[in-house]
Recover the amino acids of this structure.
């Protein structure tokens, strides 16, 4: 349960949304807390074990000096390198998997079967390499254990001994992380076991992401990072006396920083996973170092995935080369526009011929003195209007009255895939020659920019206001009132580079 | 030291700024932590006592049921009422103080002397009402104490006794808060002492804010809230068994929520003051309740102060009545504009006659086919250009070359009060008849809206992009290319209500 995770999401939210999120989060937290209390008395079976804090490691109050900081920085640098390597490999693997998955469901399922067999072999096979260790004295928890979660798996050892590699592999991921994060357990894991576990998890994490199962990136990266952190902590023992569990936490942070690159949100997530505010300075330091190192190699893993899927993601800032262009330069034509009272046939033809989602509406004489921009009409609204079939034989304004024949929610935004499609609208031959008044469904206050507006400033407007369409209007008079419509695709570097190959696309 | 406070400030920041803030915060946290470690060994005298967590109360793991939640909700409701009353009284007192302070420095100082005398009388006088209590057994800290910070002030009691009221009054505010927040000290304070302390601090807090000393609102409100919380916790003892220190924390949260109304940031601040993530659900709940209750009475204290000072603060959302207006409706005239190459005398006259900070620049024939908007020029840039005195006798374009005669930072934004003033620019009589080309200093890509744009949408544009000037352009052709310029003042409810008295200003 991530109470605090909403803090990082609030960036750039409106205050109404913030307030609602806060409200729901508070209710969830209180109710969940109540249910955990109720279940802790054993009324829900195994359900409800655990608490609000996922890995409540309760580390001892740590003090640290310059050598410790040095160790943390080294940990961050190597973590950053491994993190960016992770991104690089995930990218390569994902591209391969995309090709395999495209071949059909058989290949998809085959891929899943191969990966899960491989994972099973690793999980069961590798612990055989592990050595048996006598259980430490003065333990609060049972040791060794069989068939339940917790530290110290017995595996194939004799009585009173445990297999440290099995304690990591044959466990839930959550418990393995908790084991690695636990403090005061410096000698629980052999150096060789940590190395084997790290290599296996790092490798399995990379080849698992992208197959047809619901799996994420967070837990594999934390797991690999925690084992890496413990391993490096062992090696750096001579210069740093920080706890092995703390090293595991910092290692996880360095991997997260190296792959995801979201410093502030990761900081918050790690804080609420561990509930230790005093670790925050070290966590921040390691995140800073690993993000900086990894940024010099490649982009964050989510940026990579967005790019690979071809989603038109607009960066928060305008690219430098946009300062040398104006809005008119990137408008892609041809422009398809409607007049205020348009022939049904023209609308149907435009909807058939283009995939545009917004069309400018232009008032022409005799309904205005000169052609002028009336507004923008959306494809989805056009479809609803056409399906309503309130057409007139003459080119006359019908006014708002026509809207009363529609239900209150007919023009509301439909759920994904639930809106009307062009195939749903059947127009008779004679209706094609009739007219429909677009004014009632036209957005009369579209945001506009002049054609000579700097593209960088147009991009800021587009992004900050979260627009879908931006009308470009002419600067000089006596020309058609709309030059074109800018959409998200027109701001994409690929589009602009296609138009102006001499601009180099530097980040 | 507030490590986490930056989390709440990041709302709406750009990512570059976020990253820099994170970096500096990490460095500060690490360095501060190092210095505290260094000073803890006694090398810095009294300096360096304490830690990163201001009130590390280390409460026992709390469990709570429905009656406890009910108690917390009651606490929040009453806290909300007291919080909004605090706002109301602070507002009244501030208005009175503003009048007194305007009368001159003598009155200012006299006011400070009176308030400080009153505070001293309360701090020393009221503890005499307090009763002497025997020191509890099994204490880790010394009791009673004289002349140092901590709980259990001896004041005028006999050996082995302490005065609970003196422990609150004759202490630093930080220590008093720590005393109130401390857990497992249910019987340390008498109910009557808490009531007296609460009344005194509530009253003193209200009359202290606004006098000519550097004082804030946070600590007085936390102090009053903490004593209120303990008091109510005592009274609610029959239905709730929560710790008295936790009640004090929740009381402080309810007062903060009732006065400041910033739920998320307060949550973060309380979290890092106390370092207890498990309290978060209760803190969120009490903040929610108290903010909701207080919102039904008046606005937050900072909103009140902004309004009282007459600052043109734009709300994040557009007011509902703005949907019924268009941009043209609220433009305040008359418009003062320049032509591209303008007579120096005209510029000087405009700068003298108006206080406008931005002027539209319009290109006219023969420099364009028809009058068209070239851009916006700032008053500060005009002053720099005029002081440079690069004038020409004829109306000819000089181009960018003229800028080379200025230094790189001449047009940079000057620090507050450091920019050129109109008096600094001396123009000879003959120069008044000369011309200056404004194109080099004109912002050629101003954001514009059409005059018929919904005022609500114009307000969103203005606010989201953080504009100072917004050009309103005509919809129909054949008219001057600018209708007017919208500034922040034009969006203020007072301005709009003056123009359209029939719109009522509902929040």
């Amino acid at each position: 349960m991530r109470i605090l995770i909403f803090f990082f999401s609030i960036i750039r939210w409106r205050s109404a949304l913030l307030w609602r999120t806060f409200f729901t989060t508070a209710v969830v937290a209180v109710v969940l807390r109540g249910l955990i209390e109720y279940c802790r008395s054993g009324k829900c079976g195994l359900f409800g074990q655990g608490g609000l804090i996922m890995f409540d490691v309760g580390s001892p109050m740590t003090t640290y000096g310059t050598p410790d900081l040095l160790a943390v920085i080294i940990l961050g640098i190597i973590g950053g390198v491994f993190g960016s390597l992770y991104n690089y490999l995930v990218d390569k693997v994902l591209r391969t998997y995309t090709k395999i998955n495209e071949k059909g469901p058989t290949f998809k399922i085959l891929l899943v079967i191969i990966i899960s067999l491989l994972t099973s072999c690793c999980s069961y096979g590798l612990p055989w390499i592990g050595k048996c260790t006598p259980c430490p004295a003065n333990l609060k928890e049972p040791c060794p254990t069989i068939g339940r979660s917790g530290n110290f798996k017995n595996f194939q050892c004799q009585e009173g001994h445990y297999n440290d590699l099995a304690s990591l592999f044959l466990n839930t991921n959550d418990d393995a992380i908790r084991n690695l994060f636990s403090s005061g357990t410096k000698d629980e894991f052999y150096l060789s076991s940590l190395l084997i576990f790290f290599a296996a998890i790092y490798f399995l994490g990379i080849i698992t992401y992208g197959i047809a199962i619901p799996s994420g990136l967070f837990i594999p990266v934390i797991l690999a990072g925690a084992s890496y952190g413990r391993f490096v902590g062992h090696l750096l023992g001579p210069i740093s006396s920080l706890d092995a569990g703390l090293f595991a936490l910092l290692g996880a942070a360095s991997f997260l920083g190296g792959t995801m690159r979201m410093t502030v949100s990761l900081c918050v997530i790690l804080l609420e996973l561990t509930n230790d505010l005093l670790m925050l300075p070290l966590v921040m330091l390691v995140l800073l170092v690993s993000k900086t190192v990894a940024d010099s190699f490649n982009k964050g893993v989510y940026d990579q995935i967005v790019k690979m899927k071809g989603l038109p993601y607009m960066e928060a800032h305008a690219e430098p080369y946009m300062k040398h262009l104006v809005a008119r330069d990137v408008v892609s034509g041809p422009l398809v526009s409607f007049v205020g009272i348009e022939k049904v046939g023209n609308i149907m033809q435009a909807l058939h011929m283009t995939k545009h989602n917004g069309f400018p509406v232009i008032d022409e004489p005799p309904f205005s003195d000169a052609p002028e921009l009336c507004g923008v009409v959306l494809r989805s609204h056009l479809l609803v209007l056409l399906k309503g079939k309130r057409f007139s034989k003459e080119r006359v304004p019908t006014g708002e009255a026509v809207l009363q024949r529609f239900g209150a929610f007919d023009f509301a935004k439909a759920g994904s895939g639930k809106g009307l499609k062009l195939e749903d609208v059947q127009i008779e031959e004679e209706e094609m020659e009739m007219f429909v008044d677009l004014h009632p469904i036209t957005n009369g206050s579209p945001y506009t920019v002049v054609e000579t507006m700097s593209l960088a400033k147009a991009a800021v407007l587009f992004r900050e206001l979260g627009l879908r369409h931006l009308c470009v209007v002419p600067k000089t008079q006596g020309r058609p009132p709309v030059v074109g419509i800018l959409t998200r695709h027109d701001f994409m570097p690929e589009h602009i580079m296609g138009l102006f190959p001499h601009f180099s696309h530097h980040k």
Summary: The first helix of chain A runs from residue 5 to 9.
